[in-house]
Description:
By secondary structure, this protein is mainly alpha-helical. The protein is built from five helices and no strands. Helix 1 (3-38) runs antiparallel to helix 2 (48-73). The two termini are 29 Å apart.
Amino acid sequence: MSKLALRTLLGFVAAFVVQAVLRTGFQRLIGTGMLEASGWAAGTRPPGAYMVATVLAALVATALAGSVAALIVRRAPIWHALAYGVLLTTLAGWANRSTLLDSPHPYEWPLILAPLAAMPLGAWLVTRIKPLRNRSSGGPVPS
């Protein structure tokens, strides 16, 4: 297996783990408390503050996941991050297809689409902060 293929696979696994850990951590540390404080009953619409906080946490988590993937892959990180975002969005949509098609909460679609928007953003931020090196000259690769 080539080094690029190995880094690509490792980047995807790391991006998946980072976004999953951060989103789960947010839900356990903050989300559950927000729902309990509002007296939310299962099956009803969650409070607006919870929905906004959950979507923002998903965007931040996937942007950080894109950044991690870009640092690991080190070659064409924005395209890799976009591919990861498409794959993670597809998997999340497939896993939640019955909820999305039946009666979704207003924040379901933004949660599903978060990796598609935020992972390339995270990769782009990394490439702006730490540009890829041109192998022949040792300088930054032109944009």
